[in-house]
Amino acid sequence: MSTRVRDTTKTSEVAPEFVVDPELLDAISPSGDRGGIVLGSGMDGEPLTVSALRATPTRIVLVGGLYLARQVAMRAMAVGAWIVIATGRPAAWQVVKQAAGTQADGRPSPHVQIRRLSPVELPRPSENAPLLVMHDGGPTPQELFPPRSPWQTTVYVLPYLHPQASSTANASDLVLMQRLPSGQAELAARMWSLPPQMVHQLTTLKDDQVITLGRNIWRPIRLVTTQQEQQILGPVRRGD
């Protein structure tokens, strides 16, 4: 697993480029890379951004609520990514589509598309137009949209950790986890060989905290919501 992180204070501008270290998810630490998805801040208040849009097919597993999933989608959209949301609950994602705005002719922006949970042709990703696929298919997702192309990132949204999701989780480049009940935290321990102190931390995270897990990575991040995002998504929370 590997992803980069950079300092940032702006989330409303389109990033001019997406050139990142090919060893993406190796370390989550502040960096000066341009482009990337703002995750929040470190425990010392430093802004952190993960460069998850890169010239390598990328998998991210998100274990948590719709608030975090929708915020990740909006942050990716803010840096110029096209967003395809495959979901069985399209109404829950309409706020992201609305946030994308409209074209000059009044039609909805094509940059955010909401699809059914079935294989469809995806927009062709490129360095100037990376693609983020939000796969909201429950706790045991099927590989409907595996990332096969450079500049495509697929985020698997898991409402909770399930034993049958272990192959998806272990094949990911990065895992984002919100607070877990003790049983799921124990399952996470078995999946990733976590020591007791990490398992305890997973069960005691606050609503605005996320653990970023990767190869040789374990870092808590505090979610930060802008005023505009609060108007769209509401306050930071664990669930929905």
In CATH, what is the homologous superfamily?
Answer: P-loop containing nucleotide triphosphate hydrolases
Number of domains: 1
Strand order, largest beta sheet: 5-4-6-7-3-8-9-10
Overall, the morphology is globular
List the uncertain runs: 1-35
Helix content: 10-25%
Instruction: Describe the sheet with the most strands.
Output: 8 strands, mixed
Q: How many separate helices?
A: 6
Strand content: 15-25%
Q: Tell me the structural class.
A: alpha/beta
> What is the C-alpha radius of gyration, as a whole number of Å?
16 Å
H and E string: EEEHEHEEEHEHHEEH
CATH architectural category: 3-Layer(aba) Sandwich
CATH fold node name: Rossmann fold
Distance from first to last alpha carbon? 28 Å
* Total beta-strand segments: 10
Mean pLDDT: 83
Question: What's the level 1 CATH class?
Answer: Alpha Beta
What is this entry, summarized?
The chain is of the alpha/beta class and 240 residues long. Helix content is 21%, strand content 22%.
